[in-house]
Amino acid sequence: MRKGNENKNLADGAPRGRRKSNKLAKNQHLTQILAEWEYNAAKTVRRVKMDSGREFLQVRLPLGIEQYEIDGRPDGKRPMNQESWLDYYQEQARRRRRSGEDLSLSDEDFLRLQEEGLLYYYRYLVFFQAHEYQLCARDTRRNLKLLDFVGQHATKEQVECLEQYRPYILRMSCMAQALLKIQEDDDVPGALRLLETGIRAICELPSIPENSVFEFEKTRSLKSLEDLISQLEAHVPRNVALENELKRAIRGENYERAATLRDAIASLRKSLKEE
Q: Is 72 left (phi over 0), alpha (psi -120 to 50) or beta?
């Protein structure tokens, strides 16, 4: 009878003996840390500097705090004594190449790179939110290099798993560079040119057959860039805004709209000369 009860308890997930409580030491308790930085949805990101001068990026969540390294891997780890798994596998590929061989990523290799890329994705979103556009652009460029590397050394399925997000990464990279142009130089026309370049790059991406994620990311990325262009054009001369809109109309093969814009540009130039 006792044996039957024990089996029932084990089946229900109950422990065999008395349950031990995990007591936290004072320095393990988070209450004081969280109390010192109360959650405020309007301001959730901050930089903190240690006495050594080392800086971290922290994000306040409703029930906790995330912490990111500013440089290197966001979690501060150095796999195989390299800055990242990407650096490690790039070095392995170079060694293989010198021996006349090619590197083929295993499932484990790919998973390491994929999970690491996700860490950089989380960090560049935080950088963007904190208006740290230079660092956001740096991390997006890094993840684009990841996609390029995987494209050379992985299977078709593995390549597509990451490549479907290229439109999104390009969009974030382009927006960060454009906003940095305004932040540092107050150069709205220069920012607009960067955004137009980003739109062309996304439009020219080769399609991935039967991949709805890629098409979704491409569509929403183009819309996001065009929306930002519309916002910025309110701060540039009317003739520049019309010329930029004309380029978009031609690219979208909206020739009727393009003809209307050409007339508007010609009329504006004529009126400027008369003045």
A: left
Residue partners of 114: CB distance under 8 A and separation at least 6: 161, 162
d(Cα 243, Cα 251) in Å, to the nearest integer?
A: 12
What is 29-40 written as a DSSP string?
--HHHHHHS---
Task: Render pLDDT for 202-248 as a digit per residue (tens, 0 to 9).
Answer: 999 999 999 999 999 999 999 999 999 988 887 666 666 667 777 77
- Calpha distance 96→109 (Å, rounded): 15
Q: Which residues pair with 59 in a beta bridge?
A: 45, 66
91-144 residue pLDDT tens: 999 999 999 999 999 999 999 999 999 999 999 999 999 999 999 999 999 999
Strands 45-49, 64-69: pairing is unpaired
Q: Which helix (H) or strand (E) holds 59?
A: strand 55-61
Instruction: Write out the two tokens for 137.
Output: 């652009």
Contact (Cβ atoms closer than 8 angstroms) between residue 189 and residue 141: no
- What pLDDT is stored for residue 8 in this prediction? 46
User: What is the pLDDT at residue 214?
Assistant: 98
Per the CB < 8 A criterion, the answer to whether 48 and 60 are in contact is no
